[in-house]
Design brief:
mainly beta, two-stranded antiparallel sheet, 1 helix, disordered N terminus
Length: about 220
């Protein structure tokens, strides 16, 4: 199980949990717990954050511009809501960077954790993450749920094939192009292309496309 603790620069917290907790848990390896859940429909844009407008429309795309980040992403299967956007990191180990709604991070947020800061492109799958010991972790928060780049191994989800040492029926897919990854200075530049993430507590998936840039940690 991975646990990331986020705190915004200057002592303000930007957690990805309800009630002010600062812990982030993307579920147990390959799936987490097994509760129900269904797909949300359509493609969702998002409302503007602090200092910027943005657009919101069902079936369309939009851009949220903020002093600290520009979120130009589209979603299918979930609907993150980015309000008063904040950029945060773990100020102890600087092992991840997240952009989320300041007062309801589980309503809208994206978190990236990499082992290597060098520019690269990842082809995502559960096998890639599990066999590389988490060289790339992508967490998406929407509507109170967490989606990640590990398949759900509960009812209706993936299963492990010991003979091939791989996961079958794995929906995790797409590429994540990393141009900049600098958690200590709050800088991130990533492009999502057909990235399919799965909810940690059900077989529901969400597809992400577009560009995310953060400029600095929020104060």
């Amino acid at each position: 199980m991975l646990l990331f603790v986020l705190a915004a620069c200057g002592g303000n917290s930007s957690s990805v949990a309800n009630g002010g907790d600062s812990g982030i848990d993307d579920g147990d390896a390959a799936g987490g717990s097994s509760s129900g859940g269904g797909h949300d429909g359509g493609t969702s844009a998002h409302d503007g954050g602090k200092g910027g407008g943005g657009t919101s429309a069902d079936g369309g795309g939009g851009t949220t511009k903020d002093d600290d980040a520009t979120i130009d992403l589209t979603f299918s299967g979930c609907s993150p809501d980015f309000e008063d956007v904040r950029v945060a990191t773990n100020v102890v180990s600087y092992d991840s960077i997240a952009v989320s709604s300041a007062y309801a991070p589980l309503s809208g947020g994206v978190q990236i954790a990499l082992k290597n800061a060098a520019p690269t492109t990842f082809t995502l799958s559960t096998d890639e993450r599990s066999q590389s010991a988490n060289d790339v972790v992508v967490n998406l928060y929407a509507g109170g749920s967490t989606y990640t780049n590990l398949c759900f191994s509960g009812a209706g989800g993936c299963s492990y094939d010991a003979s091939s040492s791989s996961w079958t029926d794995d929906p995790i897919a797409g590429t994540l192009q990393v141009t900049t990854y600098d958690p200590q200075n709050g800088k991130l530049d990533v492009t999502f292309t057909g990235v399919v993430l799965q909810q940690v507590s059900s077989a529901q998936t969400c597809t992400v496309n577009g560009h995310l840039v953060t400029k600095r940690l929020s104060h």
